[in-house]
Structure formats: structure tokens, C-alpha cells
Design brief:
Layout (H helix, E strand, L loop, with lengths): L2 E8 L5 E6 L2 E8 L3 E8 L2 E10 L12 E5 L9
Antiparallel strand pairs: 1-4, 2-3, 2-5, 5-6
Length: 80
């Protein structure tokens, strides 16, 4: 089961941003307003989220540090 999670992404105004899970783009591209809330639909498991921004001149930022997110929607086993 997937979960929709809101994340705040900050980047220079008018830069074009993508959000990645590992090396896979999962959101964007979108034009940054400086601080944007993006809802990501994430399946159960561990996700390594990062962002990259491209400015108007075509300069691509260094990928952000990865944020490790674990989605666990499985109820624990009942104790006896």
C-alpha cells in the first residue's frame, strides 16, 4: 500500500527542480517558488530521496544529500 507524504523542497526561485528516489526521478520537473510543498506517493519500504535544481543558465546543482525515508504501514503481530 502506498502513502502520500508531503515534503517541503527549497531551491532558488525560478530554478527547475526534480526529486529522485535513488537515481529515478519520481517528481517534477517543477519551477521552484523558493519553498514548495510536494506530495510524493511512496510504496512501503525504504526510499533514498534527493533533489536537483537547474537554473536559467542550465547549471545543474549537485544532488542534495539523500534523505532516508522508510514507509512501514504493516501492523505489528499481536502478542499472545
Amino acid at each position: 500500500m502506498a502513502a502520500e507524504i508531503p515534503f517541503t523542497v527549497t531551491a532558488d526561485v525560478d530554478s527547475v527542480v526534480v526529486i529522485k528516489d535513488g537515481n529515478t526521478v519520481i517528481a517534477g520537473p517543477f519551477v521552484s517558488t523558493g519553498s514548495d510543498v510536494v506530495s510524493l506517493t511512496l510504496a512501503e519500504g525504504t526510499h533514498l530521496l534527493s533533489a536537483e535544481a537547474t537554473d536559467a543558465a542550465g547549471n545543474v546543482s549537485v544532488q542534495s544529500e539523500e534523505l532516508v525515508v522508510t514507509i512501514d504501514r504493516t501492523a505489528p503481530a499481536a502478542s499472545a
